[in-house]
């Protein structure tokens, strides 16, 4: 294993720890390969009955992919950029279909690629420190790593809202949206890990039962608070049901509430092109199988760094940090239907798709 991902087995559980705290455990290709290898090895190992994945450092589970690498590789025409997403999406699929219980301890920042390695988990645990989002439109990308699939399966029009705005969710909202399964205070999550490490488990079901017992014990005594999303659901469903991004932005702008004003400002700051691409992605994904949706995302990502706003968005946010991206086109009314559709044209013949085997 790489130093950036540590692995160990205790009492029947395989523990994976993302160990890149200085970068909020952002995923590199090396880390993706290390996680994939461990999961494949453990899938066939009788001494491992379940897997627990966590992030080191106390601030983040995983803040996403290594966007600085994306920027550098895109400018250099490095073929490892495409390979990164091929292997990342294959890992996301592996997690969703993993035969043994896979448990994600989603403490701290959980964004982008961090959602990709947690949303397929059998148990997704959040804490009072959880900050969850799919913020890709802010850097000229779209909510990938299966984002179209899991966002489109949230209640009502939350998928459109979360995908377009990149709004940050805390524990109660994550639970309400169906993007987490249970809440534990951070100190109780640490205690749960100690309990798991101290016991010997003979089955994955026994591991899940232990986790469920711990979360149930805290449910009444220490609830995660009220969900703001739940209170906004009706308004979100009404405002984000528009047929186009222009319709949605107009509806949000006219709504009048402080929340709507803040949301409209968020939308106006995002890439107009990628807002349109994301809306199309989420709505297509509602009727797609996970495997087809991941293949679609790879097609889309192939286009993002060649004909989209990805390079410019990352430059503005993470490289030059001027926070003044020059989106192309700069206005919503300049985004053509043909430009959006091009993101959904696969560059590969069906049998030759890099994710054909999913």
UniProtKB/TrEMBL annotation:
Keywords in alphabetical order: Hydrolase
Annotated EC: 3.1.2.4
InterPro entries (UniProt xref): ClpP/crotonase-like_dom_sf, ECH_dom, HIBYL-CoA-H
Highest rank taxon of the organism: Bacteria
Enoyl-CoA hydratase/isomerase domain mapped to chain residues: 14-344
Pfam families the UniProt entry points to: ECH_2
Catalytic activity: 3-hydroxy-2-methylpropanoyl-CoA + H2O = 3-hydroxy-2-methylpropanoate + CoA + H(+)
Protein name: 3-hydroxyisobutyryl-CoA hydrolase
């Amino acid at each position: 294993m790489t130093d950036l991902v540590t692995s160990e087995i205790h009492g029947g559980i395989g523990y994976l720890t993302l160990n890149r705290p200085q970068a909020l455990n952002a995923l590199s290709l090396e880390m993706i390969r290390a996680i994939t290898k461990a999961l494949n090895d453990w899938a066939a190992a009788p001494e491992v009955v379940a897997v627990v994945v966590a992030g080191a450092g106390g601030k983040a589970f995983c803040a996403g992919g290594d966007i600085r690498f994306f920027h550098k590789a895109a400018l250099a025409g490095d073929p490892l950029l495409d390979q990164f997403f091929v292997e990342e999406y294959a890992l996301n699929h592996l997690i969703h279909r993993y035969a043994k219980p896979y448990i994600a301890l989603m403490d701290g920042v959980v964004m982008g690629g961090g959602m990709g390695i947690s949303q397929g988990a059998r148990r997704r645990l959040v804490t009072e420190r959880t900050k969850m989002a799919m913020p890709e439109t802010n850097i000229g990308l779209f909510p990938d790593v299966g984002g179209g699939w899991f966002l489109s399966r949230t209640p009502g029009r939350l998928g459109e809202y979360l995908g377009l705005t990149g709004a940050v969710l805390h524990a109660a909202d994550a639970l309400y949206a169906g993007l987490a399964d249970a809440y534990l205070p951070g100190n109780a999550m640490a205690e749960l890990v100690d309990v798991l490490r101290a016991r010997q488990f003979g089955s994955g079901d026994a591991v899940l039962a232990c986790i469920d017992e711990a979360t149930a014990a805290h449910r009444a005594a220490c609830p995660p608070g009220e969900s703001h999303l739940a209170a906004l659901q009706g308004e979100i469903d009404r405002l984000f049901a528009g047929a186009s991004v222009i319709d949605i932005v107009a509806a949000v702008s006219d709504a009048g509430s402080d929340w709507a004003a803040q949301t409209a400002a968020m939308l106006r700051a995002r890439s107009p092109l990628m807002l349109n691409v994301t809306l199309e992605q989420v709505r297509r994904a509602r009727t797609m199988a996970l495997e087809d949706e991941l293949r679609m995302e790879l097609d889309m990502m192939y286009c993002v760094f060649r004909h989209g706003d990805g390079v410019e968005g990352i430059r503005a946010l993470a490289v030059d940090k001027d926070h003044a991206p020059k989106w192309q086109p700069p206005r919503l009314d300049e985004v053509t239907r043909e430009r959006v559709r091009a993101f959904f044209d696969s560059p590969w013949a069906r049998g030759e798709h890099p994710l054909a085997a999913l």
